Amino acid sequence: MVLPLCHGGYEMPEVLGFWRMAGEYDYLMRVQVADMKRYDEFYKRLVNSVPGLSDVTSSFAMEQIKYTTSLPIE
Fold this sequence. Notes:
Helix content: 25-40%
Mean pLDDT: 86
Keywords: DNA-binding
Number of strands: 2
Number of helices: 2
Strand order of the largest sheet: 1-2
Radius of gyration: 14 Å
InterPro entries: Dimeric_a/b-barrel (IPR011008), Tscrpt_reg_AsnC/Lrp_C (IPR019887)
GO molecular function, one term: DNA binding
Pfam family, one: AsnC_trans_reg
Shape: globular
Strand content: 5-15%
Low-confidence stretches: none
Largest sheet: 2 strands, antiparallel
Protein name: DNA-binding transcriptional regulator (Lrp-like)
C-alpha cells in the first residue's frame, strides 16, 4: 500500500531523499530549502497535502562537517 505521504513526497522538488524506516519514525525525508521561511512554507504544504498526517518531527543541521558522494571502492 502506498500512503498519500509517498505521493506528496515524490511531487515536492525540495525533497532530495525519501525513505520508509524501521524504528521510531515511519518515514524520513531529506529536504533542502534556502532558509527557515522556505522550510515553514514547505512544512505547511506537506501537512496540508497529506490527509491524516498528524505528527511531524524536524531536525536541522547546524553545520556541515563533511559531505561526499564518493564510495571507497578499490
